[in-house]
Design goal:
Number of strands: 9
Helix content: 25-40%
Strand order of the largest sheet: 2-3-1-4-5
Largest sheet: 5 strands, parallel
């Protein structure tokens, strides 16, 4: 199995697993949806005999009774030299409820005879979170609450292209007023820093623009914040490597996710990119522009 690469996609119903699987299919992976965990070992052995080199498998709560088998199976594959990447797609409950309501689909764990359909759906989602908890703990989490299908496909492709043998750092900017990303391993609040939103000539720009970057570079507190985050991460990253972490998501948040958080995410990605593989995401810049920065 040494030449085989496996991407396992799990996650919440309605979080975009089918979209992610299509992205992997476009990237040249042989994809299988809803494979029962009992068949995983035999399936991987079969694909190896067929000389398939890249396989993507989606599993979900429909296989709830046998999902506890999966973590041990993945450990066995890794011990045999198989490159395994595990992605868990998540979204907040409000988003999942809206998606099910828009598509009129039934949640796999819903009781069709429930009198309060909204409450039944929320209960099913919370039960699903509980059943998938162990898989989530052992995977790289990707929050799809506020991203479009095309963006999710891009994120998935960038993750699978990252070196499998090296820790990948994901720097993500966001707006606190729209909620903290569910996929964050570390969250840093930079709302106390000088806000370019209140400078009329900078308000409609972002942290990607030179005038905003120049404004923030001139603030001593911004330099202090950068230094403190850099020191913290540098201190703990090797420990996370020893703990066999493949991905670490560092979320930087300000009020509107346009200026300060974007600038610092970019600056940190540039600095850590000298030693680590890094990716960048700007959640709010990918969505409709906010009126606050």
């Amino acid at each position: 199995m040494k030449n085989l690469a496996i991407v396992l996609i799990t996650g919440m119903s309605g979080s975009g697993k089918s979209v992610a699987l299509h992205a992997l299919e476009d990237a040249g992976y042989y994809c299988v949806d809803n494979l029962p965990p009992e068949l995983l070992t035999a399936f991987v052995a079969l694909e190896q005999r067929h000389d398939v080199q890249r396989v993507a498998i989606a599993m979900d709560v429909r296989s709830a009774t046998s999902l506890p088998l999966v973590p041990q199976q993945l450990r066995q594959f890794r011990a045999q030299g198989v490159a395994v990447q595990s992605l868990f797609l998540d979204a907040n409950t409000e988003t999942l409820v809206r998606r099910f309501s828009e598509t009129r689909r039934l949640h796999p764990l819903s009781r069709t005879d429930a009198s309060d359909q909204h409450r039944a759906l929320v209960d099913a989602i919370e039960l699903e979170r509980e059943l998938l908890g162990e898989l989530r703990e052992q995977a790289h989490v990707l929050d799809t609450s506020m991203i479009r299908s095309s963006q999710l496909q891009g994120y998935v492709k960038s993750l699978i292209e990252a070196p499998a043998t090296q820790l990948t750092l994901v720097f993500e900017s966001f707006a606190f007023k729209r909620g903290v990303p569910l996929d964050a391993d570390f969250v840093f609040d930079v709302r106390m820093l000088a806000n370019p939103h209140y400078e009329s000539e900078l308000r409609d720009l972002t942290g990607l623009d030179k005038p905003v970057a120049d404004f923030l570079k001139a603030q001593s507190e911004v330099a202090d914040m950068f230094s403190h985050i850099e020191q913290f991460l540098s201190h703990w990253l090797q420990a996370m490597v020893r703990d066999h972490r493949s991905y670490v998501t560092v979320a930087i948040g300000c009020t509107g996710g346009q200026h300060r958080s974007v600038y610092l995410a970019e600056a940190l990605a540039e600095e850590f990119g000298k030693q680590w593989h890094t990716l960048k995401r700007h959640r709010e810049l990918a969505a409709t522009r906010s009126s606050d920065g």
